[in-house]
Amino acid sequence: MSDAPDILKYFHEEPALLEPVTPDDDPDARRRDDRSELPEGVSVPLEDLLDTRDVYRGYLAGTNHADDRVGLTTLRADNAYVPPLMKALGRSGWARCTTQNTVETLPPDAARRVLRAPARTTLLVTADGPVDTERITAVAGRAPRRVAAALRALLDAADVVFFPEPAHDGHDWGLFSAAPMRDRLVDAFRARPAPDTRRFVLPYQQARSESKFYFDEWQLTASPLPDYIEEV
After folding, report:
1. 118-122, 147-151, 159-163, 218-222: which range is least confident on average?
2. Of residues 61, 50, 53, the one with CA closest to residue 10
3. Phi/psi of residue 68, each to 5°?
4. What is residue 14's DSSP assignment?
5. pLDDT on residue 24
6. What value does the mean pLDDT of the chain take?
7. In this structure, how many other beta carbons lie within 10 angstroms of the beta carbon of residue 141?
8. Residue 45 has pLDDT above 70, yes or no
């Protein structure tokens, strides 16, 4: 067993392009097997294709090197990400959609538990007020770009939408918001030290290949790290 610290990585795309996909497009080749296809004969309305409102995207991943486990929720100290997320992005209200397509309102303590272990959760949202159930279920359990119009409608009501993403072990979290998230989350990381976890922030566009996504597996001993990788 290694004594190496855990690694947290926050990938950001601000703003992010959220164009709807057509049936023969693949929104994310790296996870192709995990994505459902559009039903046969589905077309994309022109107004959706021309919707250029900005969205902001984040992705939280992690590696527990001591136990050789990959996934944000495998980190040995979940205070490396749960309190910063709650502080920087959380609002007064939380809700999740379950695998039974049921929407549940959550108190903050329950939201923290979901962030640590999103079992039976297909979507998590936070907002200052109630969010319409139908807006949540229209997005839950689907790839964001395959429900781009529904996600934009959800972001009109919710401050942040969290997508649980399967990792090799446990889960990562994908995040979408109508407002920038990177600086708020970085400030929250810096205000809440995590001595047993090294935390890195980098642009999504600089980490599209598998080797760059998993840079911590081979590049941490390099000196120096590329300029686009910031440790916080």
Report:
1. 218-222
2. 61
3. 55, 50
4. E
5. 44
6. 87
7. 16
8. no
Query: pLDDT-based confidence at 208, cuts 50/70/90?
Result: confident
Residue 102 tokens, joined: 């049921």
Tell me whether strands 6-16 and 197-203 are parallel, antiparallel or unpaired.
parallel
Q: What is the CA radius of gyration of the chain?
A: 17
Q: How far is Cα 105 from Cα 29, in angstroms, rounded to an integer?
A: 33
**Pairwise CA distance, residues 56 & 194, whole Å:** 26
- 220 Cβ contact list (under 8 Å, min separation 6): 7, 198
Residue in the structure block whose two tokens are 């918001």 = 177
Burial environment of residue 64 by CB neighbours within 10 A (0 to 12, 13 to 18, 19 or more): buried
- Provide CB contacts within 8 A for 137, sequence distance 6+: 97, 101, 103
Residue with tokens 């995990």: 34
Distance of alpha carbon 217 from the chain centroid? 21
Q: What is the pLDDT of residue 3?
A: 75
